[in-house]
Amino acid sequence: MARSLIKVSPNPRRGEVMEIKTLISHEMETGFRHTNTGTAIPRDIITTFVATYNGEEIFAAQLYPAIAANPFITFYTVARDSGVLEFRWTGDNGYAVSEQVKITVA
Amino acid sequence: MVESGRGKGRAGAQLPSTRREVMRFAGALSLGSLLPCLAVRPARATPVSVKAAIATVIGDAKLNSGRVKLEIPPLVENGNTVACSVAVESPMTETDYVKAIHIFNEKNPQPNVISVKLGPRAGRAVIATRIRLSDSQTVTAIAQMSDGSFWSTSVEVLITLGACLEDPL
Lengths: 106, 169
Prior knowledge:
The complex is a heterodimer of chains A (about 110) and B (about 170).
Chain A: E1 4-8, E2 17-24, E3 46-53, E4 56-63, E5 72-78, E6 83-91, E7 95-103
Chain B: H1 2-40, H2 47-58, E1 63-65, E2 68-71, E3 75-78, E4 82-88, E5 98-105, E6 112-117, E7 126-131, E8 137-145, E9 150-161
Parallel strand pairs in B: 1-9, 3-9
Antiparallel strand pairs in B: 2-4, 4-7, 5-6, 5-8, 8-9
């Protein structure tokens, strides 16, 4: 189904500011387009994206139709402890996908 | 003097009628050509709606300019994916950090683009994403600091091919 890609350094140093790149395949239908016959194509987008680090929220984004298809979001966080980074995307029509990445902090 | 003034007045009095006709004609023309577009295209975000959207975010607070860097290519070929990044000057400590970053545009159907919540754990107040832009326009980024102040910057972008203009399904 939904395919997501997370790019993050697997072995950051403690205290290092690490970059996290996330990409998920999603059409992000704006709801402003129409078919040839004039019927509106209903909106189908990812509305929220949340990243947690060992259960604590480190980043949250609210997305609008102006985000391009296959939402790509880059952000930063400070590496504290080894653990799990979890990413959750939720959206229209009950869309919910989550992805986990394990990191080991040296 | 008086006579010439009158003459002018008369000429002026005649003008509106022709001007009115011209305007009516032009109006009818543009309405006729606009209607099909109006039927398919929803209303666009205008500078007014952008202001309203910004007001819901910042409330009564003062919007300062500076401290925010919005990077968008000035000339974009395809508005369907425009890489853009926002960097905010901030030490990102427990007491002084960026709370939120918002991006607004003025000509897409909706003024909001993305709203991001950050915290001191971010380490660096930088985000990057890809956005859609329907037309050449001004894009605004606003950062909310932990002390409650708001900072913003605007960038003008020239779009050759706007988003949403591709052939519908």
